[in-house]
Amino acid sequence: MGDYNTIRGQEDRPVGKPVQEAEVRDLNEFMEQNGLTEIRIVGRRFTWTNGHTYSRIDRAIVNIVWMLQIPQLEVRVMDPGCSDHSPLSIKFEENAERESRPFKFLNHLAEHKEFLARVKEAWQKGNEQNKMKDVWCRLKRVKQSMKVLNRAEYNKVDNKISRCRQQLAEL
Asked: Which pLDDT tens digits describe the chain residue by residue (171 residues)?
């Protein structure tokens, strides 16, 4: 974490001289070759200014080991005070254990015989007056329906396979 004195793309310096490919190449190649990624930032969008150019040249980067061991990280870009750089602060999530895993849609759900009927049923229950909230609510219901279907049909499939193999061996 610190001052890398370079940007990664046009979004890191939208005001000021145009971004040249040579400016971003070294850091982007370094990060790609070493499997690094940036930690999500919150707070101020830019970390350095000279009064007429605003850039994001300070950052925190991590590798996959960090991401797997400490998945809930964020970097706060704080007010610069009297410096031309904004200090960075890493915030670790206090409770790193999540209550449940996020839902991931897998293609096998779309092949299930009840898939379309369940999606249609969940989608048709919308009636919010705010259109965006209505779409959001419909998507939440579809997601919940898919979680239920996945849990009922495919949860602990390795146990089901073991039981079937055992039954087959007994036959």
From this structure: 888 889 998 888 888 788 889 989 999 999 989 888 888 888 888 888 888 888 999 999 988 888 777 766 788 998 888 888 889 998 776 655 556 667 677 788 888 898 999 999 988 876 767 777 788 888 888 888 888 888 887 777 777 788 888 899 888
CB under 8 A, 24+ apart: contacts of 112-118: 112/149, 112/153, 114/149, 115/149, 118/145, 118/146, 118/149
β-bridge mates for residue 88, sequence order: 77
Query: The tokens of 49 are what?
Result: 């200014």
Q: Are 12 and 4 in contact (CB under 8 A)?
A: no
Rg value, the chain, Cα: 24
DSSP state of 42: E
Which structure tokens are listed for 157? 């499939």
* pTM of this structure: 0.51
55-75 exposure pattern, b = at least 16 Cβ within 10 A, e = fewer: bbbbbbbbeeeeeeeeeebeb
